[in-house]
Specification:
Layout (H helix, E strand, L loop, with lengths): L16 E14 L2 E14 L3 E5 L6 H8 L7 E6 L2 E2 L5 H11 E4 L11 H9 L8 H7 L15 H13 L5 E5 L7 H18 L2 E6 L10 E6 L2 E7 L12
Parallel strand pairs: 3-8, 3-9, 6-7, 7-8
Antiparallel strand pairs: 1-2, 1-4, 4-5, 9-10
Helix pairs in contact: 3-4, 3-5, 4-5, 5-6
Bound molecules: adenosine-5'-diphosphate.
The site of adenosine-5'-diphosphate has 12 residues, from strand 1, strand 2 and helix 1.
């Protein structure tokens, strides 16, 4: 047990909010039909914090994460990353924001099949200012011995860990993960969560992980439950668990 890691008395890893959202709404217009994906979301996420976004399918989790990651913009309200206004940024500004500050991990790994693990990661580090060496990023996800494997030669969990190595190799400030275990079996999913939790703990990378799997919320500092486009509750975990301590 990591007694110190599960103390309810520990303060938030940092009291500095990196994300501040106020009154976020998102309306998708599908012909005549309007889909209200977000109906007024207020939140703060703090530096080095580990947040889990929980909620049923369709509750707005991906829409919220995409706005925080600069992949989408809200219909109204405001979203700030430090002093970057994500609400009024143009495409070029959002692209720069994503490139410099955000690592994404999705349910599907989106690796380039004709490139090895090392080459998939190196592709990203070539575009970054102070990247981790690709070998180091892959070692961090326990794939130091799979550098020259192609995606087709790796399991789903290994491919997801390459995707995580790729996301962290540019030393992002935030790691945004949308159902990172969604396509993985139980044991492999746990391994991937362990990697994300370790990166958050060791590199201090602020992490937000979407899941519809309630027990996974136990590994977070705070849990935001979404329902019908709103944040229904925000709770701090009194005892944050390590992924190997949970089951679902
Ligand atoms: P979750 O991640 O919780 O499953 P989403 O944010 O993906 O929820 O979706 C919220 C709502 O917005 C859903 O009703 C979904 O169908 C709708 N939605 C999401 N993306 C789009 C889109 N690009 N166009 C139209 N509707 C969308």
């Amino acid at each position: 047990m990591h007694a110190e890691a599960s103390s309810p008395h520990l303060p938030t890893p940092s009291a500095t909010p990196v994300f501040i959202a106020r009154g976020l709404t998102k309306v998708y217009k599908m012909g005549e039909v309007e889909v209200h994906a977000l109906r007024g979301v207020d939140l703060e996420i703090y530096a080095s914090e580990f947040v889990v976004l929980l909620g049923p399918s369709g509750s707005g989790k991906s829409t919220l994460l995409n706005i925080l990651g600069g992949l989408d913009t809200p219909t109204s309200g405001s979203a700030m990353w430090r002093d970057h206004d994500l609400t009024h940024a143009n495409d070029a500004e959002l692209t720069r924001y994503r490139r410099e500050h955000v690592g994404f991990v999705f349910q599907f790994y989106n690796l380039i099949p004709s490139l090895t693990a090392l080459e998939n990661v190196a592709l990203v580090t070539e575009m970054s200012d102070q990247p981790l060496p690709p070998e180091e990023a892959l070692a961090l996800v326990n794939l130091g011995d799979r550098l020259n494997h192609y995606p087709s030669q790796m399991s789903g969990g290994e491919q997801q860990r390459v995707a995580i190595a790729r996301a962290i190799a540019k030393r992002p400030d935030v790691l945004l993960c949308d159902e990172p275990t969604g396509a993985l079996d139980y044991a492999t999913g746990k391994l991937v969560l362990e990697v994300i939790a370790r990166i958050n703990a060791e590199l201090g990378t602020t992490a937000a992980v979407i899941t519809h799997n309630a027990p996974i919320a136990q590994i977070a500092d705070r849990v935001m439950r979404m329902a019908d486009g709103r944040i229904a509750s925000i709770e701090r975990n009194a005892a944050k668990l390590r992924p190997e301590q949970i089951s679902w």
